[in-house]
Design goal:
The protein is 28% helix and 19% strand. By secondary structure, it is an alpha/beta fold. Helix 1 packs across helix 3. It is globular, with a radius of gyration of 15 Å. The two termini are 23 Å apart.
Length: 187
């Protein structure tokens, strides 16, 4: 396994076709490494882990005690890694979008930036190994889903497709981590 930490100033030695995973605030390293290891087989691109950026204070809604997804996307754009084709922020804090109680993730569609929020992907986490395995599968599926949106993919009516909208754990757990025949990533 190769772990590459990129600065967020765009001075990486990586070419187009790379996905940069950017921790927004503290994120467990094993979560980032899992994505770096599993995403390439699904999205056909190299994945690198970038340096952590701070949680943007202007994104935090004090009344809701959540971060606004659109403000997190803006923060990623301000810390752009121009050498990456796509930039996916991972935040270990609850997040939302206007009109929604919470989000698993959000993306610019189409665009280069996406964000995934970890807390709602977890079960109550009583320390059981099966809880951790479910969390890791949900994380992978949600990250692939948001990357799909950056390529302009809409929500899919096939409940097994990774682009199917997830409104609950049941939706996320049922779908696969792969795109169906309706979505094809550009090479």
């Amino acid at each position: 396994m190769i772990l590459v930490l990129l600065g967020c100033d765009g001075r990486g030695a990586h070419e187009r076709g790379t996905i940069a995973i950017v921790p927004i605030g503290p994120v467990p390293m094993d979560v980032l490494v899992q994505l770096q290891h599993e995403l390439p087989a699904i999205v056909g691109r190299d994945v690198v882990i970038a340096q952590e950026i701070p949680r943007p204070a202007n994104a935090f809604d004090l009344l809701r005690q959540q971060y606004r997804g659109d403000a997190l996307l803006d923060a990623l754009a301000r810390h752009d890694i121009s050498a990456a084709e796509r930039v996916v922020g991972i935040i270990d804090a609850d997040s939302y979008a206007p009109g929604l109680n919470f989000i698993f993730g959000q993306a610019k569609k189409p665009g280069r930036f996406a964000v995934v929020a970890l807390p709602r992907l977890r079960d109550s986490f009583r320390g059981r190994p099966e809880d951790d395995a479910r969390f890791r599968q949900r994380l992978l599926k949600e990250t692939v889903h948001e990357i799909g949106h950056t390529f302009g993919f809409e929500h899919c009516d096939n409940p097994r497709c990774v682009m199917h909208f997830s409104n609950s754990f049941g939706d996320t757990d049922y779908k696969s981590a792969h795109f169906c025949e309706r979505e094809t990533l550009p090479r």
